[in-house]
Design brief:
- The protein has one domain.
- Helix content is 79%, strand content 0%.
- It starts with 7 loop residues before the first helix and ends with a helix.
- The model has no long low-confidence stretch (mean pLDDT 88).
Length: 95
């Protein structure tokens, strides 16, 4: 059964799509910062976001809050990873 209604899970799914698309398009913007594994994680993120959009209406409020916390942690770790890639790239260019 597919039940798509405008709920907060739709917004969470759109937020995830936006985040993983940034990771996907990092290859075209800054090729030096991208890795091959980023395509894999972008694909997994898109699959996850579509599952959240299609079946998010089943989530209890506490499970939805848990998903929000997981996404915040995931984006924080991803941001830190890309920032550290940039720092390593600058250090390699200096030497």
């Amino acid at each position: 059964m597919i039940n798509i209604g405008f709920t907060p899970t739709i917004l969470l799914g759109i937020f995830i799509i936006f985040g993983v698309s940034i990771l996907f398009f990092l290859r075209t913007i800054k090729y030096d910062l991208s890795r091959d594994i980023d395509l894999f994680f972008s694909t997994l993120g898109l699959i996850y976001s579509f599952i959240i959009i299609l079946h998010g209406w089943r989530l209890d409020p506490i499970l939805f809050f848990g998903q929000i916390l997981i996404i915040i942690i995931l984006f924080g770790i991803g941001w830190e990873n890309i920032r550290l890639r940039g720092i390593l790239l600058r250090r390699r260019k200096i030497k």
